[in-house]
Amino acid sequence: MNGTKSSRRxxxxxxxxxxxPSTTTKLAEGIAEKTAQQLQHDGHAAQxxxxxxxxxxxxxxxxxxxWRISPELQAALDIVVNSxxxxxxxxxxxxxxxxxxKSFWDIAAQxxxxxxxxxxxxxAGSERHAxxxxxxxxxxxxxxxxxxxxxxxxAATVDWGSDGLLSRQxxxxxxxxxxxxxxxxKSMLAAVGDRYTRSAVDLNVEPERDDSDxxxxxxxxxxxxxxxxxxxxxxxxxxxx
Length: 241
Description:
By secondary structure, this protein is an alpha/beta fold. The protein has helices at 23-41, 57-66, 71-81, 99-107, 133-143, 163-181, 184-192, 232-237, and strands at 6-15, 44-52, 85-93, 96-97, 117-123, 147-148, 153-155.
C-alpha cells in the first residue's frame, strides 16, 4: 500500500433499485467498491455505505407531502451529507430516473451536496436510454451544485458481463477516487463556502419578523422598499435606453 493511512473516507451508494436483489444497486456497489480499493491503494482507509431507497419508500412519500421526516430517513440524509463521495443510481422509467430517486433528492436540503463528488449510474432494458446519466441525472446534480465525474455509466440488459461495462466502472471509480484524494469538496467549500446561504426552510426555522414596522401605505407589505422607476436600470429593464 502506498503512502500513510489518513482518516477514513466514506463512499455512499444511493440506489433507487427495486429488485431483490437489485441490479441497479449491484452496479453502483461495484463502482463504490472499486473506488474504495483505489483509495486504499493511495493510502486512505475507505468504507462503502449503501442506502437502498426502496426500504425508505414509505418514509420518502410521507416526507414529500408533509415534510415529516422519520428518524430512518433522517439517518440516511445524514449519511449522504457526511459522505466524501456518492454513487447515485437509478433504474430508467419513461426515459428518466425514477420518481423514488427524485423524491429523495427533493427532500434533501438545498445545499446538502455542495461540492460533493458524484458518480451517476443508470440501468435500463434498452440501449435507447444510454444518455440518461449524462442528461437528466447530470443536470439534477448540477442543480444541487455537486461535482459530477466526467464519465456516466448506463447498463442495458446486453451490457451485463461485458468488458465494456467493466471498463467504464473502473474508469468512473478512478475519477471518483481522484476527486476524494484531492479533497475537491473541502477545497471548494474553503474557497467559496461563505458565499453560499441556506434558506429559512432549509434550516427549519421561521424567518424573523419585525412587528414594530408598519406596512407601506402604497403596497400593504411590511418594509416594502421604495423603487426608483426613473433609474437607468429600471429604464433598461423596461426596454428603454
